[in-house]
Design goal:
A hairpin with an 8-residue loop joins strand 10 and strand 11. It is globular, with a radius of gyration of 24 Å. Helix content is about 35%, strand content about 15%.
Length: about 500
């Protein structure tokens, strides 16, 4: 049985001689089962296979009170690993191409699950994008490729923007790559035009692909990706000292946000006035995570997420993240578990699928191992256990958990400054966080703020009855980095935070 991997595309033959001998086929393939057909008159002494893959280690750990999600994470890490070789791949059983939108999700997962050696593959991806740029500014969707020279605008913008190039810099501190790729992004941005309403005009590129699945409201979707691309470039310009560029991108972001909400928001949802199909949850997810949607729209957007499930596993990551940012992590967790349940509970495969099913239940057949489906891993580490860089390359550590209906969770991440841990227990009356990070660095730790009456850190009261308490352990942050937390600055070390509700 094959699953979109083609027929017998790799075959070898060995002619045996008399006596004891051994043979190893050097060509690599992939699969979930190995079958050996041996002549009846041959005696087999040993049968083995050698697993090969990218030079990285599984150093991140995450576990929580939800066994279904734990199983998802196990499959997500496995899928990520087998889609990494000389480049990131969409899957190992089909074209094995570095589809750039896939890598956005894959690289985000690698920062948490894998050792820092994985960063080299992410760096190579970004240089591939810039190095293969056409003279007219177009950037290919999969690079390198011998048989594909088309642009997928949505995937390219995702890669060059906030979740791609900027995210790589933010987690690694690789300013050299940021500077080298920056001009290529500028040339690509110049291809995009705006209409009389101030929104970005539709760009078909080589393949105007928005996602697998139905009900894709492509125009606001492209506008949201464009905004994220500009947001990433604004940040990059500030880091690289391009002050005029930074001002220009800041002004463009403000104008586009106003135009986006004026043209696409109809009072209860985002949609292109010319679009007549079901509301697109993908658009709303990107509107939240990009900052295009302000919190006053969250109740209406929540209704969209409750009623529409159009996103593929590729885009579902952004829905999950949006629900976390909106303060509805419990619903995000429930939706994620529900949508991924079929592939998570499938005992035959150790990996996550390209679509929600395989064969006729997939998108165009689909592959059975697509790491773009593991985006929930990133959300788990960054939001559930709250581990994130508050400054480039973790020069300031953040540990701001969101329990999201879980009674406990724990995570450990190897960062550029060393290992960071987060473990919490949550009940209706109390939230307890244990965290540790290297002593040479400062950090921000916090607790979900809803209903909290008192916060203690290492036995010292630092917050009580709505006000910070003067102390020598932690400093309350006046301009909170998260609207969902009570956050405190601390020196590096080990901390126990107890928040009483």
């Amino acid at each position: 049985m094959k699953y979109n991997g083609g027929d017998n595309y790799l075959r070898c033959e060995y002619i045996a001689r008399d006596g004891v001998q051994d043979y190893e086929n050097k060509g690599w393939t992939n699969g979930h089962r190995v079958y050996y057909v041996v002549p009846a008159d041959a005696e087999v002494m040993e049968l083995k296979f050698r697993e090969s893959g990218y030079d990285t280690e599984f150093v991140g750990t995450f576990e929580c009170s939800d066994p279904e999600f734990n199983r998802f994470l196990t499959k997500a890490v496995r899928t990520l690993y087998i889609t990494m070789r000389d480049t990131y791949m969409d899957c190992p059983d089909r074209e094995r191409s570095q589809w750039t939108g896939d890598v956005v999700n894959e690289s985000g997962e690698a920062f948490y699950a894998l050792s820092e050696s994985a960063n080299r593959l992410t760096r190579k991806w970004l240089h591939n994008l810039a190095g293969w740029q056409k003279p007219d500014g177009v950037i290919y969707a999969p690079v390198p490729s011998s048989n594909w020279d088309k642009e997928l605008p949505g995937q390219v913008m995702a890669s060059l923007g906030y979740y791609g190039l900027w995210n790589y810099y933010w987690y690694t501190g690789d300013k050299e790559t940021l500077a080298e790729v920056y001009p290529a992004v500028q040339r690509y941005i110049a291809l995009w035009k705006k209409g009389p309403k101030g929104t970005v005009l539709l760009r078909d590129g080589g393949w105007n692909w928005g996602d697998w699945g139905d009900n894709i409201d492509i125009l606001p979707l492209q506008n949201a990706w464009y905004y994220l691309m500009i947001k990433g470039m604004r940040n990059a310009a500030e880091v690289l000292g391009h002050a005029a560029d930074a001002r220009s991108y800041t002004e463009e972001m403000a104008a586009l946000k106003q135009a986006f909400n004026s043209h696409f928001w109809n009072g209860k949802e985002y949609r292109d006035p010319e679009y007549k199909k079901a509301t697109d949850d993908r658009v709303h997810a990107l509107a939240v995570v990009s900052g295009l949607a302000d919190p006053d729209k969250y109740p209406a957007i929540l209704n969209v997420f409750r009623s529409q499930e159009n996103a593929s596993p590729y885009m579902e990551k952004y829905v999950f993240e949006a629900l976390m940012q909106m303060g509805n992590g419990d619903e995000g967790f429930a939706r994620h578990n529900r949508r991924f349940s079929n592939m998570v509970r499938n005992d035959y495969f150790t990996t996550l699928f390209e679509g929600w099913g395989i064969g006729s239940e997939g998108f165009g057949g689909g592959s059975v191992n697509h790491a773009w489906s593991g985006g929930g891993l990133t959300v788990a580490y960054r939001y559930v256990c709250g581990i994130r860089p508050m400054d480039v390359a973790y020069n300031k550590v953040g540990v701001l958990p969101l329990p999201s209906g879980l009674s406990w969770a724990k995570a450990s991440v190897v960062t550029p400054i060393g290992r960071v841990t987060s473990a919490f227990e949550s009940s209706p009356n109390v939230f307890v966080l244990d965290t540790e990070f290297p002593k040479e660095y400062e950090g921000v730790i916090g607790a979900p703020k809803q209903g909290v009456r008192e916060v203690k850190i290492n036995g010292t009261t630092v917050w009580k009855n709505g006000s910070p308490v003067r102390n020598k352990v932690a400093r309350f942050i006046k301009k909170q980095p998260s609207d969902l937390h009570l956050s405190f600055e601390v020196k590096g070390g080990a901390y126990k935070l107890i928040a009483v509700r």
